[in-house]
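Worked example 4.2. Below are the chains of a multi-component assembly; read each line carefully before continuing.
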Amino acid sequence: MEKCSHGQEIRTTKRDEKEKKELMNRLKRIEGQVRGIQKMIEDDRYCVDILIQMSAIQAALKKVGFQLLERHTNHCVREAIEAGTGDEAIKELMEVFKQFSK
Amino acid sequence: MEKCSHGQEIRTTKRDEKEKKELMNRLKRIEGQVRGIQKMIEDDRYCVDILIQMSAIQAALKKVGFQLLERHTNHCVREAIEAGTGDEAIKELMEVFKQFSK
Amino acid sequence: MEKCSHGQEIRTTKRDEKEKKELMNRLKRIEGQVRGIQKMIEDDRYCVDILIQMSAIQAALKKVGFQLLERHTNHCVREAIEAGTGDEAIKELMEVFKQFSK
Amino acid sequence: MEKCSHGQEIRTTKRDEKEKKELMNRLKRIEGQVRGIQKMIEDDRYCVDILIQMSAIQAALKKVGFQLLERHTNHCVREAIEAGTGDEAIKELMEVFKQFSK
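Applying the procedure described above to all four chains together yields the following structure tokens:
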């Protein structure tokens, strides 16, 4: 089980290469989509067509977000509950969920 | 009043330089934020800290979206209503509202 | 075209009976769904099952909201644009849209 | 620790009276707000004013939802993790997260 270390200032969590690769591919695609929007602005493209592309980016971001949320719950929150320090981890989980579902 | 031309395959709408510059600055910043998330993944950063950054990107995207939406309503939808072809423009506006508020 | 009167303190807009009936039916159903949630709480029903019902109420509310938004744009915003007072009506439309898409 | 029983068809979870009372008060208020919207429709009230009230209902529903979500995570998900059956409970929690943040 990956160790979620909270002690130091910068909190870390060890991810395996497969998971990292998958997240990076998605984020690279999102980066490309953002550049695509820039191009549409330069080309004076119709607002509605741009807005449809932006909704696609929001959906892609949400997908990455839920992947991270599920991973976090499965690893760090579970670890904390098993170690008897679940209260804080659950409170943090709820805060990030509220933030993320705005 | 900018002309929103729908005739051809690729719909366009003429934006002034000031507006373009503002939109591009915001989109460049969002692009940088997405690269920042990629760095956090590479550095095995804690999921919750990454999710908080992702919420900031979603908020920034929403801001750009609302800016485009207001501009579109003020120009293209208004033009269509004044030209007596408002029905289709309003219908399209509602579709984009729904898409964008998911 | 229904008259959207803004002069007095309480702003009104004349709706036809068919539209009123449809809106009221939906709102009565939503009222019933809220009472259904109360019953589930009394019966100590499992949180996840209650949350799924609550999502259904949120979706139903959103539908009514979009119906009102479309009607408002088609009547009051269109009227204001045709009367040359579109700026304020569009600004108000964007404010309500931001509020509604939180 | 309340027992979250999944065995039978209707899943239940025992809530204490204080929590029930708080949830019921909120839900009664929401029920009253929905009836308030009905009255506004009958009185031909301006769409924007109705939409603002509807956003208040959505916010109130979201608050009740987060309360249930936090309680569920603190009780049923924690119980499942401690009993070594966390996988299913976490999967279910993510499904409800997704549903609820639409």
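Take a moment to check your reading of the output against the notes. Chain D touches chain A at residues 66, 69-70, 73-74, 78, 81-82, 86-87, 90, 93-94, 97-98, 100-101 (CB under 8 Å). The domain at 18-100 of chain D is CATH 1.20.58.1000 (Methane Monooxygenase Hydroxylase; Chain G, domain 1).
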